[in-house]
């Protein structure tokens, strides 16, 4: 197993850089389409506080669906297992992330918290039990990352809201089955703000180290229980990479969650959290170069969980 | 982390034994319905050749879909990655194991090798490149387990064939898309024989230790490459437990494959392979008590991959 | 062929009256559940102005989906065929009336104007080209029926709106595909008002005589062209009775449109329009006794189009 | 309403002849692809024995799915309504003619007798109650058409059988649900023979006049009851033209059944049966020029049932 250092990370980025020209930047909202297509960055954080980085690791981007892991983590602290898992499942969907087909056939209970429907249910649950869900998430992320200036990108949040028809359809469909309790428009606003969190790779790696550290931050602050950390990692490996989770586990072998902003957060349990960023996506919606660099890293470190 | 010994395994079996009364024994074919509902066994094998066991670990049963891991392993030795994965995918299906809906929508390419459609494609590929696929599999299993008297249960195989309409439909549908090359009836016969392999927990644990040993048997014989072993483990964790893979990963956190005969094979990478058996199934089709004992074991050993 | 008179209609009602105890009154909104379950009425209107009636033919009820024929008729006068039929199809759906599955698979284009999705697209189109779509529809219905006091039942309309989650999901899904142009909430309000038109059998029969009279009212006022009248009749026979159109054509053999309020309007081309009402529904959502009386009438008059 | 004569039919054929260049000849089996693409014919038969014809009305072709009406008619004489309709439905499918999706979701009961699944169930039923189902159908067709030399095109039948994977999948899927009783291969052979009946427009028009004559041939021989004739016409209008029944009813307004050989049989109840033939198909699978000539004829004769 290779030793980690910034030079190794630079080498890996160089290997995958040609792929940045091949992916397709998300353009379903104008605000995302403006991102620099060739950006490429990586950062790694360990439970004992070390950080490695390379490339555009200090440029902030829209974390998008990576935020689904954060909202689930918060929900786990406010709801019992019984309450939470009767409203959202734990199984891979075998469907595109925003499909309504399965949701209707399964009576409004989303397959897992990492597809849009599931994340919307989680946000609906937070809306019920948090007094100011957007402000609260900001506080949490600032605490996790140690960066007090993290913000929502309001330009992105507004743009998402303007193109929110599909997510509104999902929310209303769940409401028709009694699985959505708050005002649709209000919850969508919260959901889009979470998606519009603007963070860089270093901040992301640092924020998610609790999943590689038995549920605690590098400073030892407990966020969730050790068991819950294992459970989130399990959900990420089966459902974290949209309809490409199987391929990703096969190639990389780490629990991970991607976002259409081009970010991926990956976990080596008990060892480290890794954030990569490259906006060009494969046809499933996962960062093309980001996945490739994680695959190389997995080989070099022998860090597959398998 | 607790030390392993037979007494610990006995204790765990005692804890889950009440569950054996709650599951439902598979009865879609008469031959399977005859099995003793309260049977309960476990065996563990390590790369260095150790064996622990408890309960009905020496009673043979029908391994059913556990054989899908064996046929995939053999296929990996006879086909290149390109050849194999263009005919079967690597993603969870989000559907019952024998559904045709997704198969039609995705033009006859099964989602993964562990649902029936995928295993049938793999058997079709073996039919093409093995001269006597049933005899060959027997030889392989006898070699892996070190038991030269392992046999197909011809009563079960015949019974399966008599109730094979759904699998025939799946095979013909794939043929209509050009993804099935040999005689349907011939391949079904092979497939049902593989399912009808009769093995006990000790034999199973020993046979699958190559997945916990970089692809090699405890005697050091290479079966597949280290990378292929990791890849199969990845496929098992995302797709090995029918439409309950997410829940299983969340509760147990090990790559595993189940069969409707009530067996489960689970892998702790680089450490051990575990075989459990209890015929009562949950509504998804996985052994109820078997899953529970793996969950307890995972907790006691701290052996989740996450 | 029997001669029509009120006594014959009374006889037919008597024959089917026992069925009124067997159907299930729609209760998805409280306002509809309040209706008298055993009501039973029929009225027939001819192009030359004759009216026959029996039973509760003068009690108003909520016409519900029967209004979908009216909104389509109005849309045909405001849009060219090309404009209209590129946004909604002409095929039976083979699905429940409020399903989103097919709508997603077919990219937001509803199968026909008589399922909810299709009717919502038609209302969206009317919203674009009518200045006051609710007031305009009232004027049209008053003109067609010759009753100037026809009103929306605001209690029902409000109740529908409060339980509108499924229809909102449908509208938003179409919006996500670009097939819905106006404000969802506004169009839903219009749609629910149309459904909440309160009319009796006589008023209904009189209103729809244009479909039995080459597109003209009994007074000779052209509403739509003769060809358009034939086309609407064709759409009704293939798609007018929810997912029971085939059975209805087989039993009754008339173009017809039903509503969950228990009303059905049926057409004998060039001869008469028939309105029946009985609130008890079969499992598809069509009036149980209403269908039966139309079947008897069809036999007595030899009036199947086949 | 125009008077019928051969000259009128010639004129109509001339009008639609350019369309023969636009359709796509069925090529899923080699035997069908060999047909002359520009063939165009029409024949009309009346209950009183008159025949009109134009174009290639005397060239035989493969009647394909038109035979589904014949097999249903025979089944109606051998089974009670209860027996028949518990095994096949009466509703349009809203799906391609050979889809398995709906069939699985609806537990192996086909939507109607005119999609492949439904026709296969009907053939399975005939296999049970007819002693020599292929010979018997030949006798019936020779009687109906008055042509004792009508034959199966064995070249086509064999070709169908060689490409029968999709239909085999459908049959096996129904068998898995208990809705298919005889040997799959045997029934497929019968089914393909029926599809391979070789007839010309005159023979077809004459054969189907019973549907325009209260169930009797022009010679007064009762084939089915008057009610059954009406019911078959109803099924044809809702489900006879694959997934284009709605459009066909809207344009032409006649009960009809098409085949991928390019034939269509259409009925004007109590007046005439019309057979058209042109091998070029639209994207749904219906004859392009054939549909167009029926539309023109409907306008000229005012013969829409609506």
Can you offer a commentary on this structure?
Four copies of one chain form a homotetramer. In chain A, 45% of the residues lie in helices and 12% in strands. With 306 residues, chain A is an alpha+beta fold. The first copy, chain A, folds into two domains: 6-60 and 201-301, Beta-lactamase (3-Layer(aba) Sandwich); 66-195, 3-Layer(aba) Sandwich (Beta-lactamase), CATH 3.40.710.10. In chain A, helix 6 crosses helix 9, helix 7 (133-145) packs across helix 11 and helix 8 (154-162) packs across helix 10. The interface between A and B is medium-sized, with 32 and 32 residues. Chains A, B, C, D: One of its GO terms (biological process) is L-glutamine catabolic process. Chains A, B, C, D: It catalyses: L-glutamine + H2O = L-glutamate + NH4(+).
Keywords:
Beta-lactamase; alpha+beta; globular; 306 residues; 3-stranded antiparallel beta sheet; homotetramer; 2 domains; 5-stranded antiparallel beta sheet; 14 helices
Distance between the termini of chain A: 15 Å
CATH superfamily of the largest domain in chain A: DD-peptidase/beta-lactamase superfamily
Number of domains of chain A: 2
Separate helix tally of chain A: 14
Into which percentage range does the β-strand content of chain A fall? 5-15%
Structural class of chain A: alpha+beta
Average pLDDT level of chain A: 96
Which regions of chain A have little confidence, pLDDT < 50, spanning 5+ residues? none
Q: Strands of the biggest beta sheet of chain A: in what spatial order?
A: 3-2-9-8-7
CATH architecture assignment name of the largest domain in chain A: 3-Layer(aba) Sandwich
Helix content range of the residues of chain A, please? 40-55%
SSE pattern of chain A, N- to C-terminal: HEHEEEHHHHHEHHHEHHHEEEEH
Number of strands of chain A: 10
Instruction: Specify the overall morphology of chain A.
Output: globular
Please, what is the oligomeric state? homotetramer
Under CATH, the topology of the largest domain in chain A is which?
Answer: Beta-lactamase
Q: How can the largest sheet of chain A be summarized?
A: 5 strands, antiparallel
Rg estimate of chain A, integer Å: 18 Å
């Amino acid at each position: 197993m290779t030793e980690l250092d910034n030079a190794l990370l630079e080498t890996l980025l160089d290997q995958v850089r040609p792929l940045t020209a091949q992916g397709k930047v998300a353009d379903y909202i104008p605000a995302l389409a403006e991102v620099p297509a060739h950006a490429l960055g990586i950062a790694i954080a360990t439970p004992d506080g070390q950080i490695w980085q390379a490339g555009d690791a200090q440029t902030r981007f829209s974390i998008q669906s990576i935020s689904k892991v954060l909202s689930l983590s918060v929900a786990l602290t406010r709801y019992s297992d019984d309450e939470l898992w009767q409203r959202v499942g734990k199984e891979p969907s075998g469907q595109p992330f925003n499909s309504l087909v399965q949701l209707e056939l399964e009576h409004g209970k989303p397959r897992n918290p990492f597809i849009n429907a599931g994340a919307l249910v989680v946000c609906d649950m937070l809306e019920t039990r948090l007094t100011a869900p957007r402000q609260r998430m900001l506080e949490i992320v600032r605490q996790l990352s140690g960066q007090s200036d993290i913000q929502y990108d309001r330009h992105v949040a507004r743009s998402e809201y303007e193109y929110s028809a599909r997510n509104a359809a999902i929310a209303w469909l769940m409401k028709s089955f009694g699985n959505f309790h708050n005002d649709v428009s209000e919850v969508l606003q919260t959901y889009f703000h979470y998606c519009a969190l603007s963070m860089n790779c270093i901040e992301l790696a640092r924020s998610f180290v609790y999943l590689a550290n038995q549920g605690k931050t590098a400073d030892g602050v407990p966020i969730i229980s050790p068991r819950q950390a294992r459970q989130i990692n399990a959900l990420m490996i089966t459902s974290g990479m949209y309809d490409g989770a199987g391929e990703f586990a096969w190639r990389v072998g780490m629990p991970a969650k991607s976002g259409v902003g081009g970010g991926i957060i990956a976990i080596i349990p008990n060892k480290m959290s890794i954030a990569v960023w490259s906006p060009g996506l494969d046809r499933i919606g996962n960062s093309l170069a980001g996945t490739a660099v994680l695959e190389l890293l997995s080989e070099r470190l022998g860090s597959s969980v398998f």
